[in-house]
Amino acid sequence: VAGGLELRRGRAQATTLGILHGFVPNEGDAWSFTEDRLHRFLEDALATATARPDTPVPTPTLFEVVGAGPPELAAETMGGYLEAARLLGRRTAELHLALASDVEDPVFAPERVTPFYQRSLYQSLRAIANGTFQILRSQPDLPGGEIVLERQPQILERLRSVLDVRITGARTRIHGDLHLGQLLYTGRDFVIIDFEGPPPKSIGERRIKRLPLVDAAGMIRSFHYAAHSAARAVEVVEPDRVGAIAPWVRLWYVSAAGAYLREYLDVVDGAPFAAGSPEEVEILMHAFLLEKALYEVAYEANNRPEWLPIPVAGIADLLEAPA
Predict the structure, then answer these.
(1) Rounded Cα distance, 15 and 13, in Å
(2) Per-residue pLDDT tens for 302-320?
């Protein structure tokens, strides 16, 4: 519940003075919940890789899982986390449906995407990419930086694909900074928190309406980060065994992310902001996932260089997937 005070200087303007939150009994955030489940999964994967090294591990793409569901091996080994991923997808969809439900309030009413916005979207994506490339060129010793720079033409081409499809979904207010750390796990459900938007952006920028798939992309990148950070944890996986379980890490990621996105798309189907075709969803999701991964590369380069391999691996994986 937020309270506002109108300050009059030429025209009325609402200013929020404070926010009152309800207490949500919880067992931690969704990131901690996911890490716990991942550690169990990786321990079992290590045992399997040791005892049966020839076990075939499926290698579907994200959108193959969205279309056909997770592989049987994932359902057998992920210990119920697929249901949690589906629930996260449903809660994300319900959030977006709620934010777009008041068509009378211009602050929240969905707005159709215009050719001008579509062009500005591309320019924004390109600016983020070029900013990341500049950071990597200025620090040539960063681990994995040369891999991103070598793929610069592919990255820009993939981002430009947002101009090659007619965007039928509408722009709405979104969470803006959605990831596993922004949900509380109650023991049976997930509650979304922290609606202040991405910290680096101004208040005005945070209020700008965007395509809701941006939030979905943030969650999917969070699944990728969780899987790879768990695999890098020495107390879980010894460094010389990381390569042995790499296929299992990827299986967990694409299965969790695919189950999440499949459920999300099912729930928002028919909503005014929903994309009109699978092609539109794939092109936009690939672009937004790349945008998020490029932002992560820039962040890690400036703050945690040792973590750079995670978003670099994410970029490589995205570029290998068909556009």
Answers:
(1) 6
(2) 999 999 999 999 999 999 8
Instruction: Give 189-216 pLDDT, tens digit per residue.
Output: 999 999 888 877 888 888 899 999 999 9
For residues 271 and 100, the answer to whether their CB atoms sit within 8 Å is yes
Q: What is the residue-wise DSSP string for 268-297?
A: HTTSTTS-SSHHHHHHHHHHHHHHHHHHHH
Share of the chain above pLDDT 90, in %: 78
> What is the pTM (predicted TM-score) of this model?
0.92
Residue (of 24, 9, 32, 129) closest to 84 by Cα position: 32
Kindly state the DSSP code that residue 185 receives in the 8-state scheme: E
State residue 322's pLDDT score.
62
Classify each residue of 87-102 as buried b or exposed e, where b means 16 or more C-beta atoms within 10 Å of its C-beta.
bbbbbbbebbbebbee
Please list the residues that pair with 7 across neighbouring strands.
Answer: 13
192 SS3 class: strand
5-9, 21-25, 70-74, 239-243: which has the minimum mean pLDDT?
Answer: 5-9
List own/partner pairs for 203-211 with CB under 8 A and 24 or more apart: 206/176, 207/107, 207/173, 209/110, 209/111, 209/171, 209/172, 209/173, 209/174, 210/171, 210/172, 210/174, 210/176, 211/113, 211/121, 211/167, 211/169, 211/171, 211/174, 211/273, 211/284, 211/288
Phi, psi values for residue 168, rounded to 5°: -95, -20
pLDDT digits (tens, 9 = 90+) for 124-141: 999 999 999 999 999 999
- Counting beta carbons within 10 angstroms of the beta carbon of residue 200, is it exposed (0 to 12), middle (13 to 18) or buried (19 or more)? exposed
